[in-house]
Amino acid sequence: MSPNHTASTGAAEADPYSRGPQGLGYGMRPPGGNNGLAGAAMVLGVIGLSTSVVFIGGLFGGVGLILGVVALTTAKRTGTGRAKALTGVVTSAIAIVVSVLVAVFLVWYANETQECYRPDGVRQYTQCVRQQLTGN
Question: What is the pLDDT of residues 77-126, one digit of tens each?
Fold first, then answer.
């Protein structure tokens, strides 16, 4: 190489070992990491909401609510995961409310139809339940 030769600035002769251009490009996430608690809260909230009719959703909702609140405070500090954390908090709270309402309804139903719990048959049971609920 001659001493007057300068390095080429063309893209074809780019150094294959360089890290590439610095800064954010299209489709890249900003630095700061990912809020894993927010994702967990969102998943637990959705699972809790979908299983809240069978009581276990209230447990998932309780854990999801706690993780969601912690994730919201983390999102305030880091700036990532706020939407997921908020989704987790809302779905978890709804799951808890639905589970409590289902439990109250089942207790009320069992109380109203307690005279019908004898093994005589399905037809007699349904007739007794209708009588107990309608007051006839």
Answer: 988 889 999 999 999 999 999 999 999 999 998 888 887 877 678 888 88
Those residues with Cβ within 8 angstroms of residue 93's Cβ, 6 or more apart along the chain or in another chain: 61, 65
- Looking at the predicted structure, is the pLDDT value of residue 57 above 60? yes
Are residues 67 and 86 in contact, defined by beta-carbon separation less than 8 angstroms?
no
Tokens of 127: 């007739």
Residue type, 96: I
In angstroms, the Cα distances linking 68 to 57, 101, 121, 129 are 15, 22, 48, 42
CA distance to 20, 21, 30, 33, 122, per residue, from 24 (Å): 11, 9, 7, 14, 68
Question: How far is the CA of 82 from the CAs of 45, 69, 134, in angstroms?
Answer: 15, 10, 49
CB 92 within 8 A of CB 48: yes
